[in-house]
Design brief:
The chain is of the alpha+beta class. It folds into two domains: 146 residues; 148 residues, Histidine kinase-like ATPase, C-terminal domain (Heat Shock Protein 90). The chain is 53% helix and 18% strand. Strands 2-1-5-4-3 form a five-stranded antiparallel sheet, sandwiched between helices. Strand 9 and strand 10 form a beta hairpin. Helix 1 runs antiparallel to helix 4, helix 5 runs parallel beside helix 8 and helix 6 packs parallel to helix 7.
Length: 404
C-alpha cells in the first residue's frame, strides 16, 4: 500500500511539475528570442543606412543616421574612414557616448572583428555589427541582460513556490485517488485477522478431540491424517495472525533495545537446527548496537531470515549473519550458499513460493518473507534480496538509530 501511494504521488507530482517547468521555460525562451531579434534588427538596420552606395551621397545617409532614434536599446554608430579611424560618432538615444563605449569601439576596430556578434544575452553587455569597414554599430545590452536575469530569477522562485503548492495538491489528490484502495485493503486485513481468530478456536477443539480419540488399527490412519492436516491448518492460521500483527505495529510499543544481543541469541538458537542439516552459522555482529524498535518483531525478523537461509542452503555450507552500524543506519545481512533467486521482488509477496507446484509437504506457505518485509517497513527500513556467484544475500537497512 505504501508503494502504491508513493508511485501515485510521484506520478501526479512529476506530471504537474513538468507543466510548471515547461511554462517557465517557454516564457524565458520567448523573452530571450524576442530580445535577440530586437538587437539583431537594430544592428542590421543601422548597418544598412551606413553602406556606401555609388548612386548616393554619403552625407544624406549620415544625416539620416543622426536623426534615427532608438527607444528600446542604447544604440551607437561610429563612422570610419578608409584607415579605420573614427570620424563620426552617433548616439541614437538621449544618452551621451561614454568613454567605455568608445574604448569598446576602438578594441573592436583594432581586433578587426569583422562580423555581427550578439553572444549569450545572459552574460554579454554589448553586441556589435562590423561586417564592413566604413562603420561600426554597437548596442548596449546590459539592461537587457539584467531584465533577462531578473525574469529567470523570478521564474525560478515561482517554480519553487509552485512546487510547494504542487506537493500539497499532489498529496491531497493521492489521498483521494487511493482512498477506495486503502479502505479495501484495510477491510481485507481485518477480514484475514478476524477469520483467523474465528478459525483458531474451533481448530483447537478439533485438535484436542483428535488427541482424545481412541486409536486402533481401523481408525489409526484416518486419525493420523486428521491430526496432521489440523496441525498444518493451525500453522497457517498462526502465520496469518503474525502477518496481520506486523501490519498494525504501533510506534508507542517501540522501545530502545540492544539489537546485537537479539541477533546473537537468535543465531545461537538456530545453530542446533542448522547442525542437523550439516550447516554452520557464522556471525559477525557489531557490539552494543541500540535501536528504537519493537523487540518481538525484530526477533521474528531475524528468525525468518535465518530459518529461510537454512531451508535453502546446500549441505556442508555456511550461513553468515553480519551486523554493521554507522552513524546513519544499521545493516543486517544473512548470506547463504544455495539456489539463486530469480524473482527478487516477488519473494516478499504473500503466499509466494519458489516451488511453483505449491508442494504442501514442506509445510511452508510463503508468508515468512512477507512478514519480514512488514516488520522492516514498520521500522522505516528497506529489505532486499539478491544472488551473486552462487550466494544469496538478504539485506536489511534501518535508519532509526539511537546512540548508546
Amino acid at each position: 500500500m505504501k508503494n502504491l501511494k508513493k508511485k501515485t504521488f510521484l506520478t501526479i507530482f512529476i506530471i504537474i511539475s513538468l507543466f510548471a517547468i515547461f511554462f517557465a521555460t517557454f516564457f524565458n525562451i520567448q523573452t530571450y528570442h524576442r530580445e535577440y531579434i530586437g538587437i539583431l534588427n537594430n544592428l542590421t538596420r543601422m548597418k544598412n543606412l551606413t553602406i556606401k552606395r555609388p548612386d548616393k551621397e554619403i552625407k544624406p545617409i549620415n544625416d539620416e543616421l543622426h536623426n534615427r532614434k532608438i527607444m528600446d536599446y542604447e544604440v551607437y554608430t561610429f563612422i570610419l574612414n578608409d584607415n579605420n579611424e573614427i570620424i563620426d560618432q552617433i548616439s541614437h538615444n538621449d544618452n551621451k557616448i561614454s568613454d567605455e563605449i568608445i574604448i569598446k569601439a576602438k578594441n573592436i576596430i583594432l581586433n578587426n572583428s569583422s562580423k555581427i556578434k550578439i553572444g549569450f544575452l545572459y552574460i554579454e553587455s554589448y553586441a556589435y555589427n562590423f561586417e564592413n569597414n566604413n562603420s561600426l554599430t554597437i548596442v548596449n545590452i546590459s539592461n537587457t541582460r539584467k531584465m533577462l536575469l531578473t525574469n529567470l530569477l523570478i521564474s525560478l522562485l515561482l517554480v519553487i513556490i509552485s512546487e510547494l503548492i504542487i506537493y500539497i495538491i499532489s498529496k491531497k489528490i493521492t489521498k483521494w485517488i487511493t482512498k477506495p484502495v486503502v479502505e479495501s485493503f484495510n477491510r481485507e486485513k481485518e477480514f484475514v485477522a478476524n477469520a483467523s481468530h474465528e478459525l483458531k478456536t474451533p481448530l483447537a477443539v478439533m485438535m484436542a478431540s483428535v488427541d482424545c480419540l481412541e486409536v486402533n488399527k481401523k481408525n489409526e490412519k484416518w486419525i493420523n491424517n486428521l491430526k496432521s492436516e489440523s496441525e498444518k491448518m493451525n500453522n497457517l492460521i498462526t502465520r496469518l495472525l503474525d502477518l496481520s500483527k506486523t501490519e498494525y505495529l504501533k510506534k508507542e510499543n517501540f522501545s530502545k533495545n540492544d539489537i546485537s544481543m537479539i541477533i546473537e541469541k537468535r543465531a545461537l538458537i538456530f545453530e542446533a537446527l542448522a547442525y542437523e542439516k550439516k550447516i554452520t552459522i557464522e556471525t559477525n555482529i557489531a557490539k552494543n548496537v541500540y535501536m528504537f524498535c519493537h523487540k518481538e518483531s525484530i526477533d521474528e525478523l531475524v528468525s525468518i531470515l535465518i530459518d529461510n537461509a537454512i531451508n535453502h542452503s546446500e549441505e556442508n555450507s555456511k550461513i553468515k549473519v553480519n551486523l554493521t552500524c554507522d552513524k546513519k543506519e544499521i545493516k543486517l545481512e544473512v548470506i547463504n550458499k544455495g539456489d539463486p533467486i530469480f524473482e527478487c521482488e516477488k519473494i516478499f509477496e504473500r503466499f509466494y513460493r519458489n516451488d511453483k507446484s505449491h508442494n504442501r509437504k514442506s509445510g511452508r506457505y510463503g508468508l515468512g518473507l512477507a512478514i519480514a518485509k512488514n516488520i522492516v517497513e514498520s521500522h522505516n527500513g528497506l529489505i532486499k534480496a539478491y544472488s551473486k556467484d552462487g550466494y544469496t544475500t538478504f539485506e536489511v537497512k534501518m535508519k532509526v538509530l539511537l546512540e548508546n
